[in-house]
User: Which sequence fits this backbone?
């Protein structure tokens, strides 16, 4: 065993191995190299690359489109890969603790991530960005937004290219220019991306299901790839004015934020039923990410009731009730610590639900495999196998099983 292998073994010594075979993480994250956009952006945009810079106190902050971020807190970059850290504020206030130095194992390096999958007993992970979830809230320039997504997509496809179908890349799309986004999806899939994702807002304040985005839906359908909605930082106007008398950060409304964070995703999913997107694009596959799964029961019961039993439903253009489309066309990634999932999976069928770790982000528990085992034991064998791995394997066309 070489020195690097010994180092890896020490890092992984406390990692838990899942008791079940064939599991795939439907939503894990990488930390992008701080210079990714400076290296991968088209040359004409590099003076406005996304960067991590230092403030007057030596704390890290983001520079987006040539301007210092006003949404991302100073010192926050050091917290982006610290799942399980006990004291986030001490990290954020210390200039010596940085985005790079605090990054969890497997955040930056594909070989490390494969070692982590082996140690956990996981077959594969579908990967999403970290810095890529933050910048779009503050960047309203459509041309630069498209350049940012192209740069990331080039890099993530390279990052995953030698992993043997175990690190699965997805393309970031910006709906700031739907035609350009559709073209980028076609380019990224040709380079290896297995699907795409968008954030749950547009600066034009359109519903995601708006006809302006039909070109993107058509591309995803024709390419037979997943169209996912992932939460991220959003413009302040998204939060509304319910709490304008205070400040979300100063009032420390973290628990409220933790349950509110998926609202945009859930709201945007509802627009796909309102605007009959699934009738227009009968092979489109929509995946809801990092917004929990326990809400699905109320969500579908309420929409079905309005559609079938109220005058409101009479005027809707849907051919079927919403839950019918959901069972065939929608998928939801769930947190392993959700205790309401077993009966929900039983009611709506085992094919639409996936699990996700959110590794290495600090807003989710590092004990995800402990919780996942407890949840898996509550499911009958067929439901368990589908939830743990088969659903995401089929959705993203992941071939083979790990031979760790």
Assistant:
């Amino acid at each position: 065993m070489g020195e690097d292998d010994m180092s890896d073994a020490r890092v992984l010594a406390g990692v838990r191995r899942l008791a079940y075979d064939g599991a795939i993480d439907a939503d894990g994250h990488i930390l992008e190299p701080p210079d990714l956009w400076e290296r991968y952006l088209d040359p004409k945009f590099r003076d406005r690359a996304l960067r991590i810079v230092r403030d007057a106190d030596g704390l890290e902050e983001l520079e987006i489109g040539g301007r210092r971020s006003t949404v991302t807190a100073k010192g926050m970059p050091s917290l982006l890969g610290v799942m399980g850290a006990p004291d986030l504020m001490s990290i954020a206030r210390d200039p010596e603790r940085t985005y790079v130095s605090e990054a969890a194992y497997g955040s930056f390096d594909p070989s490390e991530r494969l070692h982590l999958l082996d140690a956990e007993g996981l077959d594969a992970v579908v990967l999403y960005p970290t810095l890529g979830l933050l910048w779009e809230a503050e960047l309203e320039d459509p041309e630069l937004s498209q350049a940012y997504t192209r740069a990331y997509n080039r890099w993530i496809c390279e990052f995953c290219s030698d992993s043997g179908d175990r690190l699965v890349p997805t393309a970031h799309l910006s709906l700031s220019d739907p035609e350009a986004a559709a073209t980028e999806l076609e380019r990224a899939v040709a380079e290896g991306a297995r699907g795409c994702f968008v954030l749950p807002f547009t600066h034009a304040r359109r519903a995601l299901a708006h006809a302006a985005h039909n070109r993107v839906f058509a591309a995803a359908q024709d390419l037979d790839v997943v169209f996912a909605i992932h939460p991220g930082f959003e413009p302040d106007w998204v939060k509304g004015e319910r709490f304008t008398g205070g400040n979300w950060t100063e009032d420390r409304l973290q628990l409220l934020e933790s349950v509110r964070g998926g609202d945009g995703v859930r709201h945007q999913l509802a627009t796909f039923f309102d605007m009959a997107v699934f009738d227009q694009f009968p092979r489109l596959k929509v995946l809801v990410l990092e917004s929990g799964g326990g809400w699905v029961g109320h969500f579908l019961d309420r929409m079905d009731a309005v559609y079938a039993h109220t005058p409101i439903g009479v005027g809707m253009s849907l051919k079927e009730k919403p839950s019918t489309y959901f069972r065939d066309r929608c998928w939801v990634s769930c947190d392993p610590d959700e205790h309401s999932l077993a009966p929900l999976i039983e009611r709506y069928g085992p094919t639409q639900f996936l699990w996700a770790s959110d590794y290495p982000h600090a807003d989710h528990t590092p004990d995800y495999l402990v919780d996942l085992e407890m949840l898996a034991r509550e499911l009958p064998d067929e439901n368990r196998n589908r939830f743990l791995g088969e659903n995401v394997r089929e959705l993203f066309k992941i071939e083979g099983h790990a031979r760790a």
